[in-house]
């Protein structure tokens, strides 16, 4: 059985399940513990580790051969539990129980939760990418105003970006302006990421599924030179073949991060240099694969099905 841990109406999952050739079941962490049941038994007769979704079949750990862990939602405690201390204790116990259940699954993961956690850390990504031979932008991440001022020389274009864009305080990736420079003292409140601007002949979205690499080139309008995402609607998409050394470096990065799946962004400079920007362990693939016909959903489905079949054999 293939277990897909995600939220309902996830279009990326819907595309994949259409190609699965093995039984599968979904589980939304947001249903736990309020709407789903959990049970673990160890005894003379053996062991039984069970999850029961609200509307799904019983999931037994020993029947799971592959897990796709994709963009999960947080747990949902019962609203009847109102005391703050009691809610904190309940959350801690639920977290320990569910994490223990995941670690008890002796099977294939795309991606292991621990690898997802480490893999999304931008500092570790850049560190390992360099060690894998990938070119990365000259970068400074700091809460030191003096260091920020020294790095952001007005004669050299620099971008600023956040580690993570949260809904409550959205931050775009943008070129540093004169006004930004006048406020560099504010980095003392929280570290800011500064990078030398990398001019792009093309942007690339590169999907890796195990050892398969699916690259898409994105040619944007000039106004989207800093960040191609707002200009997706007018951009030109095409399949792209990474140079062998770049593909090898990216696969090495995945291995070091423990990632089975990842969506990476690269820039191809006018001189043809391929510059790695970041990898997202749960990154989107549909906006690229639907425009180019790249068989990414099929590759994910084949990987999960293959490992599940091998586990059950």
From TrEMBL:
GO BP term, example: SOS response
Gene Ontology terms: cellular component: cytoplasm
Gene Ontology terms for molecular function: ATP binding; metal ion binding; ribosomal S6-glutamic acid ligase activity
Keyword entries, A-Z: ATP-binding, Nucleotide-binding
Pfam families: ATPgraspMvdD
Domain of life: Bacteria
SUPFAM superfamilies in the cross-refs: Glutathione synthetase ATP-binding domain-like
InterPro entries membership: ATP-grasp (IPR011761), MvdD-like_ATPgrasp (IPR048936)
Positions of the ATP-grasp domain: 126-305
Protein name as catalogued: ATP-grasp domain-containing protein
Organism: Nakamurella alba
